[in-house]
Write a structure and sequence with these properties.
15% helix, mainly beta, 12 strands
Length: 314
Amino acid sequence: MKHLRPLLLLPVLVISFFSPLRAFSPDSLFEPVFSTFEFLPDYYLRFELSTFALHRDAFFKRQYLAEPHPDLEFRLLSFRDIVSSVWNVDFLFGLGEVPGNNVFTVLNVAFGIDPKFEIALPSMLVTTGLAHHCYHEIDKSYFPLVHNNWLHAGVSSTNVRLNDFFHDLHEDSLLHFGNRFCWLADIGWYLKEFFGLVGPDKLNGNSPLVADVRSTARYAFTRRRSWIFTLRGETTAGVFSRDEGYRVKAGGSLYWRQGAGIEAHFMRGNRGGCFYCMYYRDDLPVPPDAPEFTLGNSRFSKNGLAQIGIIFFN
């Protein structure tokens, strides 16, 4: 029997050797890693509906009757609430007033998607991403399909989103300056090629834009009961290519847009809303083969228009 003792001890040794591994299941082993990530921690819903006034010619009256604009932004994945994958998706529907039409005509729809990375610092947000936008006409094609891809980087205040800006103010009875003011500054380039891996027609179509800078700002100047009133400003300035005959009224290769207005925010339950009025001036590129009814205006121009609307948000 002595020679059998090693064989009898073998199962005991095997069980003793592997039994501690039961405490290290895959879930517990990777839990410290997974706990630093959070899936879909936040989402932001916004729906805007606007109309226009101060149409200065027949083209603007044709193009701008109303604009519904749904917008969804969400953080897909977040690492310790510091680095996040953020996606923004929006649609803009252009309703016009075409002669002979009884009520309104759906003239165009624009689609945008902007996947980006966001780094949350103590006093600001740093972002970088690639925004795709395309502009389609409905039923009739007076203008070509336009699309572009904007590689951008920017900085902003931590309350730059309308949702965060208003909720922070609503909870601040003293209206501290840090909550009164929000801002954003972005710079970007429009991709024409990508190391030969993607065809130029896939990256850019009928868009002469080369690069631009964009900034927005809001400032809450007073509160009246449950209403908060803010001033809002928007500025875009950029460079475009004149190789295919695009032009602006001022000449040169620079284009710009400036918007200024006032907003009135209100709270209903856990959700908010905002009435606003914005006035725009701009000088945007016009293609050489633009239809005669445009009267020399860019199809994207809002020069001299007042935009009046309401925004609902969560």
